[in-house]
Structures are given as structure tokens and as C-alpha cells.
Design goal:
By secondary structure, the chain is of the alpha/beta class. The chain has 11 helices and 9 strands. It binds glutamine (GLN).
């Protein structure tokens, strides 16, 4: 395999960037990745790259860039190489203990915000990872009391750091399995982006996924195991009329709607993401009289 060191011959920014793009060619995001990594190495923004094509890249910076390009070519997600990724316009720290936040998960935030106004409400995000969903909600609804749970203490460390850096005090992080970590009281809304990929799905070998925490991606029972647990637990944890929103795979809409309906949820529906795929299902709990 050609090494980045051999491919990046030039010293000026424009040529180095062009050679890096060629080195990463084959990946859909080659252009963007080459730019993001060079911006990180130089400590400059995109406008600088455009404005100073003849900028002389120092030897040490070129070496650091080559190392990052090699790791990217070996499949490591850019988000982990940068240690940071944006979600809902919030800069979030991420590492290999947390999933890289996906743009399609912003649908979950949008749909949650559309259901309840600001006010003294109790909302939970189950399996919070880097805290992406909980912190996006906290940034839009400062009066909500948000609890965010995760089984992984290492993920919670990242989420707590993000909350501190973003100065969002209305999220309480707690360690445990789905609803088990939450306090006694009932909730107005529960949201989750749980693992939902089947263990034998070849998609797991795709770009970047082998570097992500498998426990955040994969669930037994054809990807539905954790969704079933969440629906059951949430039905005991929500107030009458409380909402549950769960992200899932593009082929799982019908199964997830059935799971909701058999757990006494009403107004059950599935929403599609910007790519037109069924991406989340939601329902309103109706307590038995
Ligand atoms: N939506 C992610 C993907 O398709 C998977 C995240 C998840 O399992 N919750 O890569």
C-alpha cells in the first residue's frame, strides 16, 4: 500500500491537499476528510486553506498530517482522529468509547422538541454516549430536567466533559442499563438512539464502524433486543400521555410499531430521515384504567 509519506511530496498547502485527496481517493468523504485533517494539523480554518494556497507547510506538520492520513486510510473515523465532532451545531468531544454522532439522529432531537415546550419537565435520554441528544435538547430547552444514562462509565466521562464545556447544567448523567439508572419519579418524555444493528449485518464492516464501540451498535434478536427492553421499561417510567421516541434501522419500522402497540402506546408512528429512510418511531403512553 502506498504510504502518505511517499505521496505527499510538496511543501505548499495547495499541492499537499491535492495529494492527500488522491491518497484518500476511494473513500466517499476523501475531499472533506483531507481538509478537516489539514485544518486540525495547521490549527487553521477552511477560509485559511482557501486564501493561502502557497502557505509553506512545515516538516513537522507534514509528518503529523501523513500520520493522520495513514490512520484515516486504515478506516479510523475522522471524528476520532480529531477527537471532536459536531452535532446540532454543538462541538462535542468524542472518542472510541462513544459512537460518532450521526446527522440523521438530529431527527430524534427535532421530533422531541416538536412534542413538548420548555418548562419544568422531566426528560430522559437512554444510552447517551457522548451526550449528543441530551445536550442538544438541553441547549434548546433550558428549563427541562434531563437525565442521561449509559452503561459505560467511560462514555459518561466524555458526556460530562461535553456538558461542562458547553455550559449546559440541566443534564444529570447516571450510569446503568436503560431506565434502571433513572430516579424514581415519572418522566414526560424518553428518547433513545440504542444499538439496533443485527450481529451478522455486513454493514458493520463498513467505513469507520469497526472502530466504534460494538455495544453501541449491535443488538441481538435481529437488532431489536434493546428496543424491546426500552419500550417495556419506558412504559413503567412515563407519565400517562408521556412520549417515547426511539431511533432504529431503515427496515425496522413495522416491527418497532408492533412493539410499541403491544406495550399500550398510542399515536404510534414512524418518521423518515432526510434520506427518506424510516428512522425513528414514537408513541404516547396510555396507562391502563
Ligand atoms: N445509525 C448508525 C448507523 O447506521 C448506527 C447507530 C446505532 O446503532 N444506534 O451507522
Amino acid at each position: 500500500m502506498p504510504s502518505a509519506d511517499n505521496e505527499l511530496k510538496s511543501r505548499n498547502l495547495r499541492d499537499i491537499l491535492e495529494q492527500a485527496r488522491l491518497f484518500l481517493a476511494g473513500s466517499e468523504s476523501a475531499h472533506l476528510d483531507a481538509e478537516l485533517l489539514l485544518m486540525a494539523v495547521l490549527g487553521k480554518n477552511r477560509a485559511f486553506l482557501r486564501t493561502w494556497p502557497d502557505y509553506p507547510v512545515e516538516r513537522a506538520q507534514r509528518d503529523a498530517y501523513c500520520e493522520l492520513l495513514e490512520r484515516r486510510k486504515a478506516g479510523e473515523p475522522v471524528a476520532y482522529l480529531l477527537g471532536q465532532w459536531e452535532f446540532w451545531s454543538l462541538p462535542l468531544q468524542v472518542n472510541t468509547h462513544t459512537l460518532v454522532p450521526r446527522p440523521e439522529t438530529e431527527l430524534l432531537v427535532e421530533q422531541a422538541l416538536a412534542r413538548l415546550p420548555d418548562g419544568s419537565l422531566r426528560v430522559a435520554d437512554l444510552g447517551t454516549g457522548s451526550g449528543a441528544i441530551a445536550l442538544a435538547l438541553a441547549s434548546e430547552r433550558p428549563s427541562w430536567n434531563i437525565w442521561a444514562s449509559d452503561l459505560s462509565e467511560k462514555a459518561l466521562e466524555v458526556a460530562r466533559t461535553n456538558a461542562r464545556q458547553l455550559k449546559l447544567p440541566n443534564v444529570t448523567f447516571c450510569q446503568g442499563n436503560w431506565c434502571e439508572a433513572l430516579p424514581e419519579q415519572s418522566f414526560n418524555m424518553i428518547v433513545s438512539n440504542p444499538p439496533y444493528i443485527a450481529p451478522d449485518d455486513p454493514y458493520l464492516e463498513g467505513d469507520g464502524l469497526p472502530f466504534e464501540p460494538i455495544s453501541a451498535l449491535v443488538a441481538g434478536n435481529n437488532g431489536l433486543k434493546d428496543i424491546i427492553s426500552i419500550v417495556q421499561q419506558a412504559s413503567l417510567k412515563l407519565i400517562d400521555g408521556g412520549w417515547l421516541l426511539i431511533e432504529h434501522g431503515a427496515e425496522q419500522g413495522a416491527s418497532v410499531r408492533d412493539i410499541y402497540s403491544s406495550a399500550k402506546f398510542q399515536c404510534v408512528e414512524t418518521k423518515r430521515d432526510f434520506a427518506g429512510n424510516e428512522r425513528l418511531s414514537l408513541g404516547k403512553l396510555k396507562h391502563a384504567k
